[in-house]
Amino acid sequence: MTIKWDGHSHTKFCKHGHPDELDRYLDRAVELGFERYSVTEHPPLPDRWIDDAPLMAELAMGFEEMPAYFAYVREAKKRYEGRLDVTVGLEIDYLHDRFAFTERIVDPWADALEDIVVSVHYLPGRGGMRCIDYKPDDFKTNLLDYYGSMEQVVDAYFDHVELAIETAARLPGRKRIGHLGLIGKFRQALPPIDEGQMRERLEKALPLLVRANVGVDVNTAGLRVATCGVAYVPEWLIRACVDAGVECVYGSDSHKPEQVGFGWDYFERAMRREAKPGSRNP
């Protein structure tokens, strides 16, 4: 851990975020001693990606907003030069069988992109693609009832994570997989997830990350979600990634200025704690 870095954050361009200006986030980062701050907003989604018009309107900016977004972050980057390394990025959704759409997002901005977080927010479900992190009742109706068990949903999620790693490897800039444990956001409101299954699938993803040279977004947002209560990347996996040479970057996933730096102590503790030699469960 060489620098204090928040690698996952949002702005007023986020449709489910906060209208505060980016300077409020950046000033908070400076106050907390961060040296680098990655702005990673949600880019456009395909039309009717989710068959729910009100929800679609909350998920991502439109193509027409992209120039303004990039100009906005670039201007902040210049203003904070010498105080904070502001990097220009996106949180790109893994879009199953739609890589051409991802290319349409990325290609015009490839020279400007410094950081890309690739996240799995959607799975095939009842009536088409469904959000995995919208509401517990929506998850139950459109995913759990569709797949038949939490075990099947978890496997479908990690199948998509593995494909997302392949996608990330094809993109410019520094690449990370976002909030690997997001499937557990509603763990306290839905049937329990088999922790052994989660560990097995996370362990299976690790060599894929190594081969693809893709990092991990150590996302702490789950700690502030009432139905979750844990970070989206467990400490054992952070240490396993470090041992394997996979870059781990703290991510507050801030959607409000006051969330900048949230959970940094969790990340710092995990990064500083050494795994016991030969132990698979330190």
UniProtKB/TrEMBL annotation:
GO CC, one annotated term: cytoplasm
Pathway of action: Amino-acid biosynthesis; L-histidine biosynthesis; L-histidine from 5-phospho-alpha-D-ribose 1-diphosphate: step 8/9
Annotated PHP domain residues: 6-221
Biological processes per GO annotation: L-histidine biosynthetic process
Molecular function terms, GO-annotated: histidinol-phosphatase activity
Keyword field contains Transmembrane helix: no
Keyword terms, alphabetized: Amino-acid biosynthesis, Histidine biosynthesis, Hydrolase
Root EC class: hydrolase
Transmembrane segments: none
EC number(s) per entry: 3.1.3.15
Domain of life: Bacteria
InterPro entries to which the protein is assigned, alphabetical: Histidinol_P_phosphatase_HisJ, PHP_dom, Pol/histidinol_Pase-like
Catalytic activity from the UniProt record: L-histidinol phosphate + H2O = L-histidinol + phosphate
Family: Belongs to the PHP hydrolase family. HisK subfamily.
Protein name in UniProt: Histidinol-phosphatase
